[in-house]
Write a structure and sequence with these properties.
Elements: H1 2-50, H2 59-74, H3 79-95, H4 99-113, H5 118-130, H6 134-146, H7 156-169, H8 173-195, H9 199-206, H10 209-223, H11 227-234, H12 246-260, H13 270-326, H14 330-343, H15 347-361, H16 379-385, E1 389-390, H17 396-400, H18 407-418, H19 426-432, H20 437-443, E2 447-448
Parallel strand pairs: 1-2
Helix pairs in contact: 1-6, 2-3, 3-4, 5-6, 6-7, 7-8, 8-10, 10-11, 12-13, 13-14, 14-15
């Protein structure tokens, strides 16, 4: 009896296992079939979109593109370029209704895309929109979505938004319906994703996304003349979010015009909308003016900072030019002082450049010999011209020993000194009397200037 029970139990267990295996087999087969059907649907959707991608051109254009493809292969060119060349060939065959050849190249496109990164495909999609190749853009964005190319789910809503922009660009009613559908999906995805994020992440992630999507839906409905729906979505745009001002102004202008057209369902709100529209338009105008003033101020400050920086750099380069000039490296000095002038035009710099050009033009033994000065004077004169000149108390004869000073400049200096003018540095002295850079070098160790006052008293005297 026990043996019979054991045999029966084994048979029963075997039957259960057999039936379980059969169930799992059919379940697995069904799952695979479902997956295969999904892949077929994806493939069909991609192919249907590709069939709308066309490009004008001739057979000669096709041959040129094929040569470029060969060149890309030989030179190991970029994958993006390789894809774009093959895509162009496929579109040219497609517009010529050479189905077999176009399909051959479309299949190449799909194989190449499978090896590209999300960033590369996104770049191609954005480029297509910029070039107004909207069917191409729809294809790339659809490929990203269907083949799960997005690594960060937070980017998915904007993928739908961008594809909606591409659909809208096709400017057909059926595609505008698809654009609205994508924008609604973008709103749903945004809300779903935000639910899974922390408070801090949500604030960064949203950043007016839903407002942007609602505004775009309202804009499309407005273009379709479905004004009730347009108003509905415009009203969902957050009032506290100025939403780039221009968009906000557009919403309220539309509200005002819409209500004034006498639509019965909104006749009771006409005055309210009109008042709200005027207030918002004025607010947007004020914000725009304030923003323009701020941008202008920022630009002026930036120009001022750059000018100050350039002046400092020019001074540094000018000092280097003076050093090169003293060492008789005139070509180097010329290049340096020209760079200084390009940064900050200054008469002192131009004086040096003029003197350098003179030196270069007359650079021979009669001017420079064994690194000696270009003029010869007696020892007595040298001793007299080397003595210090105190500008506060010097006389006419002292001033005439300054290289570059003549009777006229001497009389002018004494007259201005008697009227209260004081020089505290050699730069202002040289600039006022238009002395040449080499003259500045010769006298800079001879002139004695009074110390600058620590506190500025009174106003500066204009001369």
């Amino acid at each position: 009896m026990r043996v019979f029970q054991a045999i029966f139990t084994l048979l029963f267990m075997g039957i259960l296992i057999m039936f379980n295996n059969i169930y799992e087999y059919f379940k697995s087969s069904k799952s695979k079939q479902k997956e295969n059907n999904k892949n077929v649907e994806i493939e069909n959707e991609i192919n249907n979109i590709l069939q709308k991608c066309k490009q004008d051109g001739s057979l000669d254009d096709i041959e040129k593109l094929k040569n470029l493809v060969e060149q890309n292969i030989k030179t190991n060119g970029s994958d993006i370029e390789f894809l774009e060349l093959n895509f162009a060939i496929a579109k040219l065959y497609n517009i010529r209704v050479e189905t077999e050849k176009s399909n051959e190249y479309f299949n190449k496109i799909k194989n190449i895309l499978s090896r590209l990164s999300y960033q590369d495909i996104y770049f191609l999609a954005k480029k297509s929109i910029d070039e107004k190749n909207f069917h191409d853009a729809v294809f790339y964005y659809t490929y990203i979505l269907l083949y799960n190319k997005v690594k960060d789910n937070k980017e998915i809503p904007d993928i739908y938004y961008n594809r909606a922009i591409a659909y809208q660009g096709l400017n057909q009613v059926s595609y505008k319906d698809k654009a609205i559908e994508d924008l609604k999906i973008a709103i749903t995805k945004t809300k779903d994703i935000s639910d899974s994020l922390s408070y801090m992440e949500v604030e960064t992630f949203l950043e007016g996304k839903v407002d942007k999507y609602n505004f775009k839906i309202g804009e499309i409905y407005q273009n379709l003349k479905e004004y009730d729906k347009a108003i509905n979505y415009y009203n969902q745009v957050s009032k506290k979010n100025s939403f780039k001002c221009n968009s906000c102004g557009k919403i309220y202008k539309f509200k005002m015009n819409y209500c004034s057209c006498g639509n019965k369902s909104f006749s009771t709100l006409r005055n309210e909308y009109a008042i709200e529209a005027r207030e918002k338009i004025q607010e947007c105008s004020k914000l725009k003016q304030e923003r323009e003033k701020l941008l202008k101020k920022q630009k002026e400050e930036e120009i001022k900072r750059k000018k100050e920086f350039d002046i400092k750099r020019a001074e540094s380069i000018y000092n280097r030019a003076l050093k090169e000039y003293k060492e008789h490296q005139y070509e180097k000095a010329k290049k340096s002082v020209e760079n200084a002038i390009n940064l900050a035009d200054n008469q002192i710099y131009r004086n040096l450049l003029k003197d350098i050009d003179y030196k270069i033009l007359h650079n021979d033994d009669s001017i420079i010999k064994n690194n000696e000065p270009e003029y010869t004077i007696s020892n007595d004169s040298k001793q007299y011209s080397a003595r210090k000149v105190k500008l506060e108390t010097c006389n006419k004869n002292d001033l005439l020993t300054i290289d570059g000073f003549d009777e006229e400049k001497t009389e002018r200096f004494i007259k201005e000194r008697n009227n209260g003018k004081i020089y505290y540095d050699i730069e202002s002295f040289v600039a006022d009397y238009a002395l040449m850079p080499h003259q500045m070098i010769d006298i800079q160790d001879r002139l004695e200037f009074p110390p600058k006052p620590k506190n500025k008293i009174g106003r500066k005297i204009d001369w």
